[in-house]
Automatic annotation (TrEMBL):
InterPro entries: FG-GAP, Integrin_alpha_N. This is VCBS repeat-containing protein. Transmembrane segments: none annotated. It comes from Nannocystis punicea. Keywords: Signal.
Length: 400
């Protein structure tokens, strides 16, 4: 069922360098923590703080972002899928590894983009990009040629992807894609051949409809095959449902369903507790129906489909979140965007699945998505469909 490449053209992209955006840190007294952690190690201090953001106009809302080394210098950069009238664009921002970010290319997409992801789909060591698009459903593939040049092609799809994840799904050594159907009721694998071609597989229905931020890939049963973890709402519960992958790109048998609170927001997978276990962090609006404060439920994986859970209060309802080591102490920290676009919160991790007190950087007009550019000075980037700007935050030491 291999869909043919319908477009193949060389974009021949020289880098158009625009003005340099220095992410100069502004060190300020951190805001008082809104809520204490219920449990965990509150001696994790001082945590990382964020400076005032630099703002970059995008000319439209960014629907999705991906980290990739776009210019081949070994440092991850940012590619945003930006919607606009009559189509959209992939907009590239180059990172110097020290917190400096500059806009380079704007690659037009003749359709409305819905999702973007990065991976090496032709096994040449260079990061490539895939961009999901609507009307009609399609996948645009940008294969890197080095020095910031890409070859663009496109493949029709059966359904518009609401989100894309790059992973090895079918047991061989090539990068594959997982696409979440628009509406969140099913996923499809797009299996890579290692030469840049991706073939759409069968539809796997999900037991609970998933928002893009509330689905992640983990090996929950530790059989070396990735499974799905989906955070969803049913009746009054927010629950994580684990669905087994069969190693051919299909997902069916439910392994476990675990209630983690009420009001599903986002689900993250990461080795939080320092081993190779696939731990999970679920962000929900409350510990239970009608139960007040938003919670980060940490599920530490102890063995095949075995999790121990602990909950932490977080400062306000959250949009998307990510895990990154912001203060370079070797432990992953939680970075979360406020659902209302009014703040980015940083919650320092202790490397054992525990979190310390949150620090918040408030700013107006932020997006609900966050990613972190690693480097000697990590940079937190906020964007989203509700904002026409990219906000870049330098990481600082908290002053107390
Ligand atoms: Ca780079
Ligand atoms: Ca490549
Ligand atoms: Ca598995
Ligand atoms: Ca850390």
């Amino acid at each position: 069922m291999s869909a043919p490449r319908s477009v193949s053209r060389v974009l021949g992209l020289g880098l158009l360098l625009c003005d340099l955006l220095a992410c100069a840190p502004t060190i300020r007294t951190p805001l008082k923590q809104a809520l204490p952690s219920v449990t965990g190690d509150n001696t994790v201090a001082p945590g990382p703080c964020l400076g005032e953001p630099a703002r970059i106009d995008l000319g439209g809302p960014a629907v999705s972002g991906a980290l990739a080394d776009l210019d081949g210098d070994g440092v991850k950069d940012l590619a945003l899928a930006v919607a606009g009238p009559g189509g959209g664009a992939a907009v590239f921002f180059l990172h110097d590894g020290q917190g400096g970010l500059k806009q380079s290319m704007r690659v037009p997409i003749p359709q409305t983009p819905t999702a973007i992801a990065a991976g090496d789909f032709n096994n040449d060591g260079l990061d490539d990009l895939v961009i999901g698009a609507d009307d009609p459903p399609a996948l645009h593939v940008l294969l890197a040629r080095g020095r910031g040049e890409f070859i663009a092609g496109a493949t029709p799809l059966h359904s518009t992807p609401a989100a894309l994840w790059v992973a090895r799904l079918d047991g061989n050594d090539t990068a594959d894609l997982l696409a979440l159907d628009e509406g969140g009721k099913a996923v499809r694998a797009l299996l890579g051949d290692g030469h840049g071609e991706l073939t759409e597989g069968k539809r796997s229905g999900l037991p609970t409809a998933a928002q893009p931020a509330a689905l992640t890939l983990v090996d929950a049963d530790r059989d070396q095959i990735l499974d799905l973890a989906v955070l969803g709402d049913s009746r009054r519960d927010a629950a994580i449902t684990l669905v087994r992958g069969d190693g051919r790109g299909n997902f069916s048998q439910v392994l476990q369903r675990r209630v983690v609170g009420s009001g599903a927001r986002a689900l993250l997978g990461a080795p939080l507790a320092g081993d190779d276990g696939h731990d999970l962090v679920a962000l929900v609006d409350g510990a239970g129906p009608g139960a007040g404060s938003p919670v980060a439920a940490v599920l530490v994986n102890n063995g095949p489909v075995e999790y121990s859970a602990v909950g932490y209060f977080v400062p306000g309802p959250l949009g998307d979140a990510t895990l990154a080591d912001l203060d370079l102490d070797g432990d992953l920290d939680l970075v979360a965007a406020a659902a209302d676009g009014g703040a980015v919160h940083v919650v320092p991790g202790d490397g054992r699945g525990g979190f310390g007190p949150a620090q918040s950087r408030r700013a107006a007009g932020l997006g609900a998505s966050v990613v972190v550019l690693d480097g000697a000075r990590p940079t937190v980037l906020s964007f989203g469909p509700g904002s026409q700007q990219l906000h870049a935050f330098a990481v600082t030491r908290c002053s107390s």
